[in-house]
Amino acid sequence: MGRMKEVFMQMREIGLLSDPGDLVIGSKSLTDRLISLEENGYWVQVGPMAKLRPQEFICAVYVRGKSSWVTESCKSSFENPSDAYRWGFSIVNNLKEKK
C-alpha cells in the first residue's frame, strides 16, 4: 500500500474523512483519484486563497521528481474547489498523454 493510501485510510478510520463517496468528481471519489494519482507520480492540491470576498481557490499540480515533488502547473481564481480539482485532473491527463 502506498504511503498516501495508508494516510487516507487512517483518516477515514478516525473520522477525519467522511464516506469518500461524498466527494465524487466523475466516476471516482476524490480520495480514490488522489490515491491513484500519487501511486502514479502525480499530486493535485487545492486550497483557499487568503481573501474571502469573493472566495477563490487555487490549484497546484505536482510531479514526483527524483528527490522531491516538482510543481508542474498552478492556477488560481477558481470559484469552488470542484472546478479547481477538475482543472488539476485535466492537467494530469495532458501530462500522461505526453509521456
Give your account of this protein's structure.
- By secondary structure, the chain is α+β, with helices and mostly antiparallel strands.
- The chain has two domains: 1-39, no CATH class; 41-99, no CATH class.
- It is built from three helices and five strands.
- The strands form two sheets. Strands 3-4-5 form a three-stranded antiparallel beta sheet. Strands 1-2 form a two-stranded antiparallel sheet.
- A hairpin with a 2-residue loop joins strand 1 (24-25) and strand 2.
- The longest helix is centred in the C-terminal third of the chain and has 18 residues, at 81-98.
For the structure shown, list the relevant keywords.
99 residues; alpha+beta; three-stranded antiparallel beta sheet; 3 helices
Number of helices: 3
Q: How many structural domains are formed by the residues?
A: 2
Secondary-structure element pattern, one letter each? HEEHEEEH
Strand content: 25-35%
Report mean pLDDT, rounded to a whole number: 80
Write the layout of secondary structure elements.
Elements: H1 3-13, E1 24-25, E2 28-29, H2 30-39, E3 42-48, E4 57-64, E5 69-78, H3 81-98
Antiparallel strand pairs: 1-2, 3-4, 4-5
Short description:
With 99 residues, the protein is α+β, with helices and mostly antiparallel strands. The chain is 39% helix and 29% strand.
